[in-house]
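Explain the record.
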Amino acid sequence: MYGGGDFIFQAVPIFIGIIFVIVISFILFSAVKGVTQWSQNNQSPTLNVWAKVLGKRTAVKGGGESRAYSHYYITFEVESGDRVELKVKDTDYGMLVEGDEGELTFQGTRYLAFERSHLKAQR
């Protein structure tokens, strides 16, 4: 018989082990990143600022053989001229239009609310 068969029986378990470690590492990294962001948002102050809706976008994750998920983002320009993009719920995404102005409430990177004002800002 050939001696090459022993190599396969030794290499395949090592290869599978390496793939397993990579997958577990990715899952742990994602979990730690999510918990860290959640903690930072909880420690951030809740801010209420005058803002204008500058843009809207969606990002679709998954699809094909798996379920597709849509994520909704809105870019706001605040009083200082800074721009911030926040992930919002689908219902909030549908209710806001580019050009809307009002009071934005957020905490860190967490969108909380936007109350549209029919009065134009005197700014």
